[in-house]
Amino acid sequence: MRLDKFLCTTLGITRREAGKLLNNKMIEVNGVVVKSTSMKITDDCDVEFNGRSLALTGPQYYMLNKPEGFVCSHVDDHNPTVFVLLDIVSPEKLHVAGRLDGDTTGLVLLTDDGQWSHRITSPRRVCEKTYYVEVADPLEESAIELFANGVELRGEDSLTRPAKLEIVGEREAFITITEGKYHQVKRMFAAIGNKVEALHRDRIGAVTLDDDLEPGEYRKLTPEEVASFNK
């Protein structure tokens, strides 16, 4: 593959932009600054852009521990996006598989594989998502059965799918849902007369947030984690 085409593919830029990078001596191949657009790149070539190694890769899959205040979109006029947390080549090619609100923290999955993310977010699929929740008022045991039977959300014509509520403190619980309605967890607690004060997603399907990831940190998914959504 020609070097300029390689740069276009790995960086998501035009050939003219690739030529500018080369002219500005920003590309090294095997440790040597290269300016030739037509240089042939083979599998054993080590190509670097500003010290960052570039490679032709397959689909990308990441988990991120989303901090509070970040939004799950590429552009926002008021808040930073989760994509600024990624120190990778061409983060703009990724999308979020199951968004979180700006004030919700925890597990976010990011990928450039549209079919894979569809298996997570499609309403036709049953993909469990578990959240840790803190609420304003004490939780009553009756809420467990209410959520298990489904609750009516304001503005909705049908009940939510059955949800599992595990009360772990006076105002703390884990809730597992299989849908992704707009602000669903917050609206479910509102439907039983309570208010969510804090919300943190801990699990999507068989993938649990890595305890070693601090807020704002991320890692690649393992092959087993990726494959768990293909079943």
Estimate what percentage of residues fall within beta strands.
25-35%
- Rounded mean pLDDT is 92
Number of helices: 6
Structural class: alpha+beta
Could you say which overall geometry the principal axes of the C-alpha atoms support?
A: elongated
Residue ranges: pLDDT <50 for 5 or more in a row? Answer: none
Q: Can you summarize the main beta sheet?
A: 9 strands, mixed
- Give the terminus-to-terminus CA distance: 36 Å
Element order, helices and strands? HHEEEEEEEHEHEEHEEEH
- Count all strands and give the number: 13
Helix content: 10-25%
Q: What quaternary form is this?
A: single chain
Quick tags:
231 residues, 4-stranded antiparallel beta sheet, alpha+beta, 9-stranded mixed beta sheet, S4_RNA-bd
Molecular structure report:
Strands 5, 6, 7, 8, 9, 10, 11, 12 and 13 form a nine-stranded mixed β-sheet that branches. Strands 2-1-3-4 form a four-stranded antiparallel β-sheet, covered by helices on one side. Strand 3 (about 45-50) and strand 4 form a beta hairpin. The chain has six helices and 13 strands. It has helices at about 5-10, 15-25, 115-120, 140-150, 185-190, 225; strands at about 25-30, 30-35, 45-50, 50-55, 60-65, 95, 105-110, 130-135, 165-170, 170-175, 195-205, 205-210, 220. The protein is α+β, with helices and mostly antiparallel strands and about 230 residues long. The model has no long low-confidence stretch (mean pLDDT about 90).
